[in-house]
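Quick one: structure tokens for this chain, please?
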Amino acid sequence: FFFVVRTVSSMPGNTEMIAVCVAAGVVLVTGLVWYLRQNKPKSTFLNKESKEKKKVQLVERTQISHDTVQFRFALESPDQVLGLPCGNHFKLYCPNPKGSVEGQWNGKEDHEASAEEIERKYTPVTGDDTPGHVDLVIKVYKSGAVDRFPDGGKMSQYMGNLKVGDTMTISGPWGIINYIGGGVFKYGSSKVLECKHIGMMAGGTGLTPMLQIVQAVLDDKSDKTSLSLVYANQTEDDILCREQLEALQSAHPDQFKLWYTVDRPKEGWKYDAGHITADMIQAHLPGPGPDTLVLMCGPPPMVKYACKENLTKLGYASSSMLAF
């Protein structure tokens, strides 16, 4: 470029040509800098090799409902991403509280009673397309709120007491399910599963890995995989991220099907009531076949009885069932 300018500048009457060359050079250099910045590998917060424990600071908390809070934790820099593959989760750690009855938690033997620290698995509602922070939606189970659970939730109560500026310990990524895109999943260390239709059944906070995959599919215009979600909760008020789910369904009505069921419906409720049944699966999820995979996440009894047993009755192959 500078050779061209010098050559042109040595010719008489070429002032305009010099200006054009300089302007072109500026555009070229600016474009090159932009391209390099855009294609520079992003710094990731989580270390997938060592899975070392790190600290994150709470920078914002938003009360979504009477018992649900969205937490925003800052990463190390504004342009850093979490580094969590789609379908994976991370672990959070906190001190182990003591139950109201020594050696017990919520009326049952506390198998963590001797531990100084406990860990819980979570999937965020933000992905690596959101740099600088990670958002987590948590339902806080307070002691005494439900008779059956006098001690409440260990981790959720700890998080419920967090204030902006507090820190938590995190590690990851963890998990054996990774959605690569285009209907392709990596399962475990080497197994690859492909599908055209993804059925999903979630209970309570088990929604979050489903939401992560739904967002990944719908954000990729080239991904034509169909999505169907049956989401179960105790009550209508317990439905997490409802506005977000329904906005996604409204924007992609032909690709994303959404259905709810609650144990205690209010008058006028237009969806199903009760636990997930074989009839619900038949009505709202893709049928069994080589092009279908079904994802499940929720309380273990729900996954075992409401999901897997009903899927088996309906002819789904066990190899098509993936539980988080």
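The two ends are 56 Å apart (CA to CA).
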